[in-house]
Amino acid sequence: MDRRQFVSAAGAIPTAGSLISLSKPAIARSTIRWQMVSRWPEEFPDQMASGRRLAERIDQMSGGRLSVEVLGPRDLGDYRDTFDKVASGEIAMSRSLSYDWRDRGLAFEMFTVVPLGMTETERTIWIQDLGGQALWDDLFGAFGVKPFLAGSLGPQSFGWFGEPIRSLDDLRGLRYRTTGINVPIMRELGVSPVSMSRSEIGPSFEAGDLDAFELVGPAVDLAYDLHLFLPHYIFPSFHQTAGSIQLIVNRELYEGLPGDLQAIVANAAQAEHLANLTRVHASNIAALRVLREQHSVTIGTVPDDVLTRIGEVASNILSASRDEATSEHQRVFDSFIDARARIREWIELSEGNFMRSRALPFNYPSAG
């Protein structure tokens, strides 16, 4: 099979309708068959199902002309090689995180997580309406890849702790599992950050090598039984306010599609972005209740003065990262920062003040 993965008319499977009459010439219909690798395995809540929904949307919207097989993260080798495999055309598509490829430069982080950056809604505004998509296309296009928004991990937690966080002193010295840009931020605060995979969290804690950790949010953390190790679940996540999920497609394969199939891939990704985002929120709502009511988990928050200091440290590290980046990555960073300011003014005026008003001490109807 060549790189474009087309199935010829001769290899197409005839339908019953094509055999009804031999007096009429059969119309051969070729099917394009692609593979899509999911970053997330079956046991990870919501995400493999989201990948399958996306594939089903493409199949249904195309009338079967474009068929996508969904594979797990290890089905075709080391998942960390997926970006390069999509770039080369060895794999047509992958549903993943731009953050996964952060070793390629600062801009790759901007499309997934930025400390105290944007919510999922805000990042969607930036990407779809304030210039983010064009910059994303340029950044990934240099590697032969076309990116789309295609879901979200949702708001995450600050993590699991043995005691509530009341001051910076409660953080200092803790051996705390985290990843990415949060590592230098925590180190600056006197924390001892430790990077490890999800599967290492339990054994490391039981061996006495870990004091606190963060992974994702309620649904994922409950699925992996993280509540069995520590009793205090702290919010908010300042470093992963929203984990935007991407669909990446080999650019040559995508541009080789007929125009209507290109539109189908784009529209299917956009539809799944909303579908997955609402599903993740619903899963977290249900899981948080289970954690609190069935497992007696204490839900807490980080004090404002601690968050303020974290914001100062994060801002300094982000500015330094921007100064060290290439001009291409600086353009993405600057666009993100400009959009954040513009969006923030509107969101805080409208939704921010609404949230504040909803928390005021008045009686509101309860469910009958």
Overview of this protein structure:
The protein has 2 domains: 165 residues, 3-Layer(aba) Sandwich (D-Maltodextrin-Binding Protein, domain 2), CATH 3.40.190; 130 residues, 3-Layer(aba) Sandwich (D-Maltodextrin-Binding Protein, domain 2), CATH 3.40.190.10. It contains 12 helices and 11 strands. Helix 1 packs antiparallel against helix 10. The longest helix has 35 residues. It is globular.
| Share of residues in helices | 40-55%
Low-confidence stretches: 1-28
What is the CA-CA span between the terminal residues? Answer: 61 Å
Overall pLDDT score: 92
Helix and strand arrangement:
Blueprint: E1 32-38, H1 47-61, E2 66-71, H2 82-88, E3 93-96, H3 107-110, H4 120-129, H5 132-141, E4 145-152, E5 159-161, E6 175-177, H6 182-188, E7 192-194, H7 198-206, E8 212-213, H8 218-223, E9 232-235, E10 244-250, H9 251-255, H10 259-293, E11 298-301, H11 304-324, H12 327-358
Parallel strand pairs: 1-2, 1-3, 6-7, 6-8, 9-11
Antiparallel strand pairs: 3-10, 4-10, 5-9
List keywords for this structure.
11 strands; 3-stranded mixed beta sheet; D-Maltodextrin-Binding Protein, domain 2; disordered N terminus; 2 domains; 5-stranded mixed beta sheet; single chain; 14% strand; globular; alpha/beta; 368 residues
How do you describe this structure in short?
The protein is an alpha/beta fold and 368 residues long. The protein has helices at 47-61, 82-88, 107-110, 120-129, 132-141, 182-188, 198-206, 218-223, 251-255, 259-293, 304-324, 327-358; strands at residues 32-38, 66-71, 93-96, 145-152, 159-161, 175-177, 192-194, 212-213, 232-235, 244-250, 298-301.
